[in-house]
Amino acid sequence: MSATLLSGHELAPASVVKPSTWDRAHKPTVVMFGVMAALFLLFSLTAPGFFSFANVSNLATQIAPAVVVGVAMTFVITTGQIDLSVGSTIAFVAAISAELLQAGVQSSVVVLIALAAGAFWGTVNGWFSAYQGIPSFIVTLATMSIIRGIAQFRTGGFSIPIEKDTLIGQFGRASFLGFSYQAWVALIIVIIGIVLLHYTRFGNYVNGIGAQEESVRRAGINTRRIKMIVLGMTGLTAGIAGIMIAARLGSGSSNSGVGFELTVIAAVVLGGTDLFGGRGTVFGTLIGAVIIGMIANGLTLLGVSAFLTPILTGAVIIVAIWLNMRSAGIGAAWRRYVKKS
């Protein structure tokens, strides 16, 4: 232990300055939590029915698919990769699930096939990216077209209805303690994601690959396998989201999930995950998804035109991301203000 000389004779332990709670906090996530609280207060005061249990429950159901995929996308972006094919995977899974149910296959078997299909496409992305050296942006841009194209070719672009008495049909309407099963599934996946990313060796490797991949590789870690696994995770969660969306709508369509990947990536970045890798937070992704869902929900209740909603949503997201990127400077300015006052 280091020591300090006192009066030329005595040695005493050097004082150790413990970092404050604010110093240890993840600043971008804290800022986004403040933005979320401000939006909640604003819409509660202005949008009729926004501050009601029924609307909060409805909002939780609406954002559940984005939260589920967002958790896995946090791992992908933290390793310095990206997955643009999740929307197409959702459409593929929704379409084949409805098709299999219509053919008389049991729901439990359909669910297993759907999850396997999602994981398969994610693993394909991971293999090409990690083992063949093709950037994930290029791989998933190509598979985005291939996967949706297969779904459209099989269904002809038509929606396939799902009977209400099937297990998947019932899953779309079931609830517990006032919240849908889909919201509970999303919460469970968030908890799993937090534990996996922040409290396990696998999570340390994910963060390390995004920050110093070569150092992690020289430490004897199979970085290629981890990069393939995280892309497989986005495929698997896109499969779960595909079942969620098909169950909620009561049909499977190859046109589902258009633009979904942009919503998920925006939620991850809004939450404070570094788009260039090395730093990720699952809780922040949850906050980002809530902000995006809250804006759409609040503007709808205010009666804002459906054509104006994307413009306002994009503008708010840009401002939020700007605040996110300036969070360190805002924190320093606040500390200086507190010291002066």
Explain what the structure shows:
This protein has 341 residues and is mainly alpha-helical. It has helices at residues 21-24, 27-46, 53-78, 86-102, 107-131, 136-155, 167-171, 181-198, 201-218, 223-249, 260-270, 282-301, 309-325, 327-340; strands at residues 3-6, 10-13, 160-161, 175-176, 179-180, 251-252. It is globular.
- What radius of gyration results from the CA coordinates? 23 Å
Helix content: over 70%
Structural class: mainly alpha
Total DSSP E strands: 6
- Note the main sheet: 2 strands, antiparallel
- Span between N and C termini? 37 Å
User: What is the average of the pLDDT values?
Assistant: 87
Unreliable stretches (pLDDT < 50, length at least 5) are 1-12
Shape: globular
Query: What's the order of the H and E elements?
Result: EEHHHHHHEHEEHHHEHHHH
Percent of sequence in beta strands: under 5%
